[in-house]
Each structure stands twice: as C-alpha cells, then as structure tokens.
Request: fold
Amino acid sequence: MNKSKFFQRLAWAATGLTLVVIVAGAWVRLTDAGLGCPDWPGCYGMVTWPSSTEHVGRANAEWGHVRMVESGKAFREMFHRYLAGFLGLVILALAFLAWNNRSRPGQPVALPMVILGLVIFQAALGMWTVTLLLKPAIVTAHLLGGMATFGLLLWLSLSSSTRAHAPTLPARAQHTAVVVALVVVAIQIALGGWVSTNYAALACTGFPTCHGEWWPDMNFAEGFRLWRGIGVDYEGGVLDEPARTAIQMVHRLWAVVVTGVMAWLLARLWRAEDLRKLALIAGIVLLAQLSIGIYNVVGGLPLANAVAHNGMAAVLLGVLLMLLDKTRLRRTE
Reply:
C-alpha cells in the first residue's frame, strides 16, 4: 500500500472513531457520569478506576470529601477518556505522516496540524469539564470541539480521496445553499449542547406546546447567561424552570428554521442529478433526527434515544459536509 492510500484510510478510520467518541461522550453526559472521576487524567488517583472493595474504600477515604465513588460512573468516564486518548494518538500519527510526506504533491499538511491542535485543546476542555464542575460553557465547548474534530477529519478524508468526476454545473450552483444549511445546522447543534449541559431537555412537557402553552413563562437572560461563578457544582443544573424553558423553546424554534432551510436545500439539490442520492440521505437523516428529538420530550428522555440524538446530529453534519465537497471544484480539477 502506498503512503497516499495509507494516509487516506487512516483519515477515514479517525473520522469513524471520532463519531464513536462523540456517542460515548453523550452516553457519559446523559448518565450523569461527567464527574464520575473527581480528578484528571486519572480517576481517584488511579490509572484505571476504583472497582474492587479495597480500591473503593481507599478512594473514598482519600476523596470522599469531594465525591464518593460510584464505580459504574467512574468506568464510563474513564472508558471515554481512554477512547478519546486513542483517537488523539491516531490524529498524532496523521499529523506525523502529513509532515513526513509534505513534499508529495497533493499532501494536506496544514489541516492535519490544525486538527492536532484542536484535539490537544479538546483534552484541556475535558480537564476543565471536571475541574470546573461541569460548567455549561465548558461542557458545551467540549461537545462542539468534538463535532468540529469530526467535521475536520471528514473534510480531510474527503479531500484526500479521489473522485470519479468533477461536479456538474448544476451541482456547483448549490454550493452556497449548502453553506447556508451547514451554518444553520451548526447553530442548532450548539443550542442542543446548551440544552443538554443545562439539563433543559425535559424543561417542557408536551409537544408541540410547552406545558400546554405556545408561549410559556421564560427567562432568556438567565437561560443564556454564558458564564457564572467559579466553584459552582453544575451537576443536575442550577437554573430555575423559566430559564430552562427558555433554552428548550429556543432549541425548538430553531429546529423549525433548520427544517425550513433543509427543505429549501433539498428542493434545490434535486435539480442536480448527481446530488439526488445524497439529498435523499440528508432528508432521511433530518426526518430521523426530528423524530428522535420529539420522542425525547414525549418519551421522557429515554437514554438510547437521547444518545442517538447526539449521534444523528453528527451524521447530519457529516452529510452536509459531503454535499459541500460534492458541490465544489478542487484545485486539481
């Protein structure tokens, strides 16, 4: 296997692994295991986590004033850390290969280095998530950093892969529309992260109304206050009902915008025959994401469904990035 092919396959593997890390991170967050380990990078001073009776007793004696051991939560937190650490090593290998092959025509160098820098910053955000006690701004940034890592790795994979033919003129005409949809979806992902990190997923009972009202009592200023005092434990959330309701309602209302923009985009994409397959996939993913989101509310936030909502957001982002690539001319074409 030549170096170019190996780099391409490693980039695709890293992209898939990042999706797994995103889903695992959602699982950790939604099972309230974000503080399963009160320290970082170890867990109660251990390389793994306290599991035996002896280790749990020792950890409680030393760390009990901070947080008592819950072995299941500690395991989930460390599983996510090790998975993310392995992804970091794969990205480091990508950056090394890119630099080592920098003289080869067409070898991306800048993007792998940017991704490496991003994953290092992600590690810092992971540490601050613990040390700042699940501060919503930090946890949301950590989620968005994971999505950005996934998106950039996918873009690197697409850029490194050869394609059968350049996009047609009707396909290239949809490039700006795809950019618009990508921005709108990215905003919704950020809002979804803010819902989750402020424990506002069930702030509204019922759908499409909230507490039986179309416009319930809401406190937007408090709900979207990005930074609060240091030392506050945010596990379980600290906002009152009107503030959480405001967060949930903004996420719902922006979902209407997303649906409208995506419908407009899909209608445009259908004009280009070479984009119809991806357009159909995008429509199916959007419909699945909307259905999952609605069931989160009416079903009481079942764990598997809530985790799937995070994963499907990444998939929708990925499909839009593939459409972005399909509607652009590359330098070599």
